[in-house]
């Protein structure tokens, strides 16, 4: 980590040091572009002890993955500072204002600021998230296969989650919580029955934890259902304020507002790319790394052609 970076213009500033940001920085560094990564150190998958589904890195701890990534980008002269970007303005190039350090200039910008997961307000859920309270069966399903699952409904869309997790366990209880059974369609109910998912109405009051392990889900009426895993649907909160301040066109989705981008991650703001969970709720680590790579490759071509065109015109 370089804490003494200068104030002169960088070719690219990457905002965010997760999989997307580090992947972009690696490609940019190898392309001989002066690059700065500004990392606030708040990765989305920090609560998890392992990450899955990334070929050759399956089961690796997220912190180890990021540490290796930081080592790799340093080999190519990429600078990294632990700080937070508070403002970005544009007057030709970009001025990137940091919370603790000096403002820097950038010719191009990669926004890889991710998102935050807002947990359902049920006692015990936030504390156990990433352990036996989970959100993604592709991330954790194999590790908890065949255990008794619970699924906490946060909306009628949670039916999809309850159906999906039945691929990993045939003992699934769907707690409707604050969702009325009337909100579920007839097709929803028939699919749940076909999957063998038990539907339980009534609000969930708390989780039952014994010896630091989830053992059950207690309803407001006092009824307790024995469960060792609970899947939840966190409310995603995209960290896209920088993009919005720059005037990027946003697309409203059921999972938040995300920037309109092209196939490389270029936003509607010239010179600004986005990658990782800053572009969508369902980007996994492998997708984020791929998106960072695509954005960086596009930036390399963009900077090259811009320089050549300036030379031709000059």
Helix content: 25-40%
Query: Measured on Cα atoms, how large is the radius of gyration?
Result: 22 Å
Terminal Cα span: 38 Å
Shape, please?
elongated
Domain FAD/NAD(P)-binding: 10-290
Catalytic activity: [thioredoxin]-dithiol + NADP(+) = [thioredoxin]-disulfide + NADPH + H(+)
Pfam family, one: Pyr_redox_2
Keywords: Flavoprotein, Oxidoreductase
Relevant terms:
single chain; 314 residues; alpha/beta; 5-stranded parallel β-sheet; 19 strands; elongated; Ferredoxin-NADP_redctase_2; flavoprotein; FAD/NAD-bd_sf; NAD(P)/FAD-dependent oxidoreductase
What is this entry, summarized?
The chain has eight helices and 19 strands.
Give the SSE map.
Elements (H helix, E strand, L loop, with lengths): L8 E7 L3 H12 L4 E5 L22 H13 L4 E4 L2 E7 L1 E6 L5 E8 L3 E4 L6 H4 L4 E2 L2 H4 L8 E4 L5 H8 L6 E4 L10 H9 L3 E3 L3 E7 L2 E7 L4 E3 L2 E3 L3 E4 L2 H5 L4 E4 L2 E4 L12 E3 L10 H29 L1
Helix pairs in contact: 1-2, 1-8
Catalytic activity: [thioredoxin]-dithiol + NADP(+) = [thioredoxin]-disulfide + NADPH + H(+)
InterPro entries: FAD/NAD-bd_sf, FAD/NAD-binding_dom, Ferredoxin-NADP_redctase_2
Pfam families: Pyr_redox_2
């Amino acid at each position: 980590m370089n804490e003494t970076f200068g104030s002169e213009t960088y070719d690219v500033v990457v905002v965010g040091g997760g999989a997307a940001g580090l992947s972009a920085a690696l490609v940019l560094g190898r392309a001989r572009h002066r690059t700065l990564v500004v990392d606030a150190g708040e990765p989305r998958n920090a609560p998890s002890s392992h990450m899955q589904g990334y070929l050759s890195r399956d089961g690796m701890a997220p912190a180890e993955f990021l540490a290796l990534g930081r080592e790799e980008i340093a080999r190519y002269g990429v600078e990294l500072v632990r700080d937070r970007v508070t403002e970005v303005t544009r007057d030709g190039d970009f001025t990137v204002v940091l919370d603790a350090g000096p403002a820097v200039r950038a010719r191009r910008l990669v926004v890889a600021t991710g998102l935050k997961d807002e947990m359902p307000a049920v006692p015990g859920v936030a504390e156990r998230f990433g352990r036996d309270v989970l959100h993604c069966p592709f991330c954790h399903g194999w590790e908890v296969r065949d255990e008794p699952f619970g699924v906490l409904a946060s909306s009628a869309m949670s039916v999809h989650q309850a159906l999906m997790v039945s691929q990993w366990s045939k003992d699934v209880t769907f707690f409707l919580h604050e969702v009325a059974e009337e909100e579920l369609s007839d097709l929803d109910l028939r699919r749940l029955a076909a999957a063998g998912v038990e539907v339980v109405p009534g609000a969930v009051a708390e989780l039952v934890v014994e010896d630091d392990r989830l053992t059950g889900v207690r309803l407001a009426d006092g009824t307790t259902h024995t469960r060792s895993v609970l899947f939840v649907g966190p409310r995603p909160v995209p960290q896209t304020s920088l993009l919005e301040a720059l005037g990027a066109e946003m697309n409203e989705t059921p999972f938040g507002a995300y920037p309109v981008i092209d196939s490389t991650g270029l936003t509607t703001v010239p010179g600004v790319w986005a990658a990782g969970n800053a572009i969508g709720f369902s980007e996994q680590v492998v997708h984020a790394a791929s998106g960072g790579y695509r954005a960086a490759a596009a930036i390399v071509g963009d900077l090259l052609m811009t320089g050549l065109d300036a030379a031709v015109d000059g």
